[in-house]
Amino acid sequence: MLTRVLSGRRGDEVKLVLRVGGGKAEVDHLSIEEERLFASLKQHTKQLDFWTLFKEWKDKSGEYLSNLSGFYHLLRQQVAEETGLVIADSDGSPGLSSHFARTIFNDACEHAFFGYKGFEGVDYAIHSPRIDWHELRLDGYTIASADDKRQLERCQEVNHRMMDYFRDPRNRPQELQQSIKIWLELKRLESEISLSLQKLILKRSFLGHCELCPD
Q1: pLDDT attached to residue 92
Q2: Nearest 5°: phi and psi at 214?
Q3: Could you give the CA distance from residue 168 to residue 157 in angstroms, rounded to a whole number?
Q4: Are 61 and 52 a contacting pair, CB within 8 Å?
Q5: pTM score > 0.85 for this model?
Q6: Strand 13-21 relative to strand 2-7: parallel, antiparallel, unpaired?
Q7: CA-to-CA distance for 147 and 93, rounded, in angstroms?
Q8: Over the range 188-208, which residues count as b (16 or more CB within 10 Å of their CB) and which as e?
Q9: pLDDT of residue 12
Q10: pLDDT tens sequence across 4-63
């Protein structure tokens, strides 16, 4: 099981518990489903369409995360091939840090989902804490380290070129395209779920007019 934390509109945190295997993720349950009142609410309102929407949201969320994970792993493989360096096992080891692929991933997603500029305009910098050790940084992140400064110049070129490439909608891989499609479906479902919950709350204000309770 894998747990992710979601933040609500009011800053409330909800844990999303996933089943991960075979390159796919499925939403097992949300942390609120473990609360005693949740089971009572489900039993009391089991006839409402809300539960169908809720199940569809969980299924789509698993698909969404699976596709994003597929895109991220695609990037990890590609950056290793393009730079000729491996992902470093720990800080202080030569090679690419986990931030190398992650910066490209975040930049591509911010452009694709929100139209943000991502890392556009952010400068690279090569720091040399020792004469025989150099670190390539982007926006405060160390994305690669090596004892040969020329290797980092190559890494900078690759990182910048890959960002430019994936910013173009025509170059988005299938995994990212599918994530965008599912994301739009999730926004629709969340709107419908929110409306259903508002209706459920309002029923408490009009005694004797509940579709489920006797007058």
Answers
A1: 73
A2: -65, 155
A3: 17
A4: no
A5: no
A6: antiparallel
A7: 10
A8: ebeebbeebeeebeeeeeeee
A9: 61
A10: 555 555 456 778 787 777 777 888 888 888 888 888 778 877 777 889 999 999 999 999
pLDDT digits (tens, 9 = 90+) for 112-154: 999 888 899 999 999 999 999 999 999 999 999 999 999 999 9
Cα separation of 180 and 123, whole Å? 28
CA–CA separation, 209 and 198 (whole Å): 15
CA atoms within 13 A on the CB side of 89: 0
Residues 6+ positions from 176 with CB-CB distance below 8 Å = 67, 68, 71, 108, 109, 112, 166
Q: Tell me the two tokens of residue 90.
A: 């720990």
**Dihedral pair phi/psi, residue 124, rounded to 5°:** -85, 155
Q: How far apart are CA 48 and CA 211, in angstroms?
A: 10
The three-state secondary structure class of 46 is coil
Q: Would you report the helix, strand and coil content of the chain in percent, each value rounded to 5?
A: 55, 20, 25
What does each C-alpha distance from 69 to 34, 117, 147 come to in angstroms?
27, 22, 31
Residues 6+ apart with CB under 8 A from 54: 193
